[in-house]
Structure formats: C-alpha cells, structure tokens
Write a structure and sequence with these properties.
Number of helices: 15
Shape: globular
Strand content: under 5%
Number of strands: 0
C-alpha cells in the first residue's frame, strides 16, 4: 500500500504531460492554415486526427491496462506521446501533422485509461476514494497548460511550429525515466489480452440509463471544448480586437483553467448535484456562445468562455466520479474506456459537421447551428436525469 505522495507525483506528471499534447497545436492552426492554405473543414480534420487515435486505443486496447496493470501502459503511452510530438514538430505537410496528431491521440488514450487506474493504486489510502476526481483535475491542468504555453511560445519565440512541441517533449522524456521508481500493486496476468473491440457498460440494468446520461453529458462537454480547441483561433478575430496565438491560446486555456478551479470548488458537492450544475452551465454556455456569434460582442465572448469553463469542470468532475462509483476494480478500465469512447465521439461528429457547414455557409452560421444543437442535447439530458431520479424514489 502506498504511504507517500512520490508515486502519485510521477503518475500525475505523466498524466499532465500526456494531456498537454492534446490541445498543444490549437493556437498554431492559423499558422498552418496560412502555410498550407487550409479550409476550416481541413483544420477540423487535423484536429480530430487526434481523436481518431484516442478512439482506436479505446476500442482495441481497452483491456490491456486491466491485463498488464497501469504502469507498462502508462510508460508506453508516454513513448507514443514523445514520438507524436516529434513528428508534429518536424511536420512539413498536413499529412505528417495529422500523423503526429493520431500518434498523440493513441498516447492520450493509453495514458488516460492507465493513469485513471494508477491513481487508485498510488494515492495514499486516505485519498483513494477521490482518485477519479483527482485524475480529472490533473487532466484538466494538462489540457489547459498545453494551449497556453504553446500560444505564448509561438507568439514571442522563434520557430513557432517547432518550439512549443519541444517544450513538452523534453519533460516527457524526464517523466518517463522517473516512472522507473513507481511500482504497481497488481501484477500482470498470464497470457495475452484480447484485442477484439469490446465496449463494456455496467452489468446492473438499473445503472445503464444513468451511465448513458453520464456519457452523453461528456459527449456534449467534449464537443463544446473541441469547438474552442479547433476553430476558436479562426472565429476569435471576429469577436475581439486582438489576435495572435497568445490570445487564442489563452482563450482556450482559460476554459480549462476555469474548469480546474470549478472542480476544486465543487469537489465536496454530491456528484449528482454537480452533474445537474454541469448540464445547466453547458446549456447556458452554448446560448452565450450563440449570442456571441450573433452580436460579435467581446463581452458575450468572455461570458461564454467563463460558462464553458464552468460547464467543462462540473461535468467532468461529476462524470469521472460517477463512472468510478458505477464500476468495480475489475471492470473499471473497460467501463472507463466506454465512457471516454462516447465522450470523444463528441469531439469528432459535431466538429466535423461544423467544419463542413463552415465551408458551405460560413463559420459564424456553422457555430450558431452547433450551439443550438448542443443546447437542445443539454436540455434533453437535464429532463432525462430528472425523470430518472424521480423513478428511483
């Protein structure tokens, strides 16, 4: 049993570094768009290449962590992350950048699922029950740091399409070395794990509707953040009088920093109440962003940015924690993979649709359609959760 915080520090650092690569490229998309003359839809394709890598990992490697334990998979994820960052830094074409993003996505899928399991092992006994919430907060810290650091480096340092990746790549190598000192409680199982695609949900029939609501809430929250991560640098210049990677990186990161603060402030609130708050914030954030696009108001953009952070933080805190409660030590890895699979679909299907709509009707109209759609989904989830709670009474 772990009695010190050192193993957690290394696992947490690996989770943070692994998630930093997720939105690291977001403030750089205007550079790539100018360099390669990309359409909005082509930017979304590059952005979701990362998500494709994550989904492949969750589909085919969902049981690897349960079979080998978290540590080998976490180390392997960091290796993939280092390779993906290297490819992205050296990319000379959209194809190579997409390849780097796919590799980083594979890394993120491996790191997220293994670190979730690892947190429950390496945390001191008095904090093990909070493993899901702590993992969520560490993930958000990594997600937020990526675009913030990348944007400011690209704004003021030379080689803006290389230097941001190097600043994450070098610490990742150091963390990979540091994981040598971490030990896992569960030993690897004999034989080989099954690589057949299989998504697992809670076996108890009464828990399945709640799991679906939780996962679809993540779908909506991930979709909202991905809109910021992929196309915010493009529509920000329509909203505010400043521009550049530092501004767009800060706008993207602020969503996640607010998310992290929200999770910290709501950590003692019952998870079901937190889930309702997250759904409500999600609905308000989409409405505010829709007003932003309609009015071109800087003030409404700030309001939308804050509400998006509140929504992201509350929904992730609640859904991560509830998935932990709905699963056991034996099936937590596969069930968490299913939850992430549905969530990451929200970063692909709506965002591709926005990119295609932007090509046909313009970016502002596409974002407004997105906001209306996610608002209706959030409203439906609120109603569904209320009915589920009433039927349980």
């Amino acid at each position: 049993m772990q009695t010190t915080w050192r193993p957690f520090a290394w696992v947490g650092a690996a989770l943070c570094a692994g998630t930093m690569g997720t939105a690291l490229a977001s403030p750089l998309y205007p550079f790539y768009q100018l360099l390669w003359d990309l359409k909005p839809s082509e930017i979304t394709y590059i952005f979701i290449a990362y998500m494709a890598g994550v989904l492949v990992t969750l589909l085919f490697l969902g049981k690897v962590t349960a079979h080998y334990g978290f540590l080998p998979v976490l180390k392997g994820g960091l290796v993939f992350s280092i390779i993906g960052l290297g490819i992205s830094a050296l990319a000379i074409s959209p194809f190579l950048l997409g390849l780097g993003r796919v590799t980083i996505g594979i890394a993120s899928g491996m790191i997220s699922t293994s670190a979730m399991l690892g947190m429950s092992q390496v945390l001191p006994a008095s904090h093990k029950s909070k493993a899901g919430q702590i993992a969520s907060m560490v993930s958000v810290a990594g997600f937020g740091s990526g675009p913030f650091i990348s944007g400011w480096i690209a704004q003021f340092l030379p080689y803006p399409l290389v230097t941001p990746y190097v600043t994450v790549l070098i610490p990742s190598i150091f963390i990979l070395y540091g994981l040598r000192s971490v030990r896992q409680e569960i030993k690897s199982k004999p034989g080989r794990p099954s690589f057949m695609p299989k998504l697992e949900v809670p076996a108890e029939p009464t828990l399945k509707p709640l799991f679906l609501i939780i996962s679809m809430t993540a779908f909506a929250a991930f979709g909202l953040f991905s809109l910021y991560g992929s196309l915010a640098p493009s529509f920000l210049k329509e909203m505010i009088p400043w521009n550049g990677p530092a501004i767009s990186g800060t706008a993207i990161a602020s969503v996640l920093f607010i998310s992290g603060c929200t999770q910290f402030m709501l950590r003692s609130l019952p998870l079901h109440r937190t889930l309702f708050l997250g759904m409500l914030f999600l609905l308000l954030a989409c409405l505010a962003l829709g007003l932003t696009m309609s009015t071109h108001s800087t003030l409404w953009f700030i309001v939308a940015d804050i509400l998006a952070g509140l929504a992201h933080g509350a929904t992730l805190l609640a859904t991560f924690g509830l998935v932990g409660q709905l699963s056991t030590a034996e099936n937590r890895g596969p069930i968490f993979s299913t939850y992430l699979f549905i969530g990451y679909l929200g970063t692909i299907l709506p965002i591709v649709s926005v990119g295609l709509l932007a090509d046909a009707f313009g970016l502002l109209s596409a974002v407004i359609i997105f906001c209306v759609s996610i608002s209706l989904l959030a409203l439906g989830l609120i109603i569904g959760k209320r009915r589920l709670d009433q039927s349980a009474q």
